[in-house]
Design brief:
The protein is an alpha/beta fold and 170 residues long. It has 7 helices and 5 strands, in the order H-H-E-H-E-H-E-H-E-H-E-H. A 5-stranded parallel beta sheet has the order 2-1-3-4-5, with helices on both faces.
């Protein structure tokens, strides 16, 4: 199965589930307006995976992105990521470099080498600012590189631009 076929199948299944959920909500005598709004919001909400071993950074990125109406999935390292790879769909990955066991450069190369994930935009977010580190990131396949500390407007701009080829930018 090609990546495109798998993506179409994933989207088709998601749409079928959403249609069934809408029908069930509509068949209820009373529909909670918040449930309806939540379901409607989720239909067009890009999902971003944040992988960072620092809880404060994960939560900060989550808050920043959710304010802009992105759905955010968190993983603290490569092991956490492997637990959600088969069960979650995401449209963009924000990945730290300094992590235990498998660093972000290695993980970036693995993700970009994976047939069903190679098309997903991947942005490295790191405190490493040297030209050599940035070059290693792009050599591993990242689509962009943001250095910490970052400006909120800058990261939102980079995320939005990364989602344009996927057709999910705001």
């Amino acid at each position: 199965m090609t990546n495109r076929t798998k993506n179409l199948a994933d989207r088709s299944i998601r749409r079928q589930v959403e249609a069934i959920t809408r029908k069930r909500l509509a068949s209820q005598n009373i529909v909670d307006l918040n449930d309806f709004r939540s379901l409607r919001k989720d239909l067009n909400q890009p999902t971003i995976l944040v992988v960072d071993d620092e809880e404060i950074m994960r939560n900060a990125l989550k808050r920043i992105l959710e304010i802009e109406h992105y759905k955010v999935i968190l993983a603290e390292d490569a092991m956490g990521l492997t637990k959600i790879l088969d069960t979650a769909h995401f449209d963009l990955i924000l990945l730290d470099i300094n992590m235990p066991w498998v660093d972000g450069i290695e993980l970036c190369a693995m993700l970009k080498g994976h047939s069903s994930l190679s098309h997903v935009p991947l942005i490295l977010v790191s405190g490493r600012k040297s030209k050599e580190d940035i070059e290693k990131g792009f050599a591993a396949g990242c689509d962009d590189y943001i250095t910490k500390p970052f400006e909120v407007d800058h990261i939102l701009d980079v995320v939005s631009k990364a989602l344009i080829p996927v057709g999910l930018a705001k």
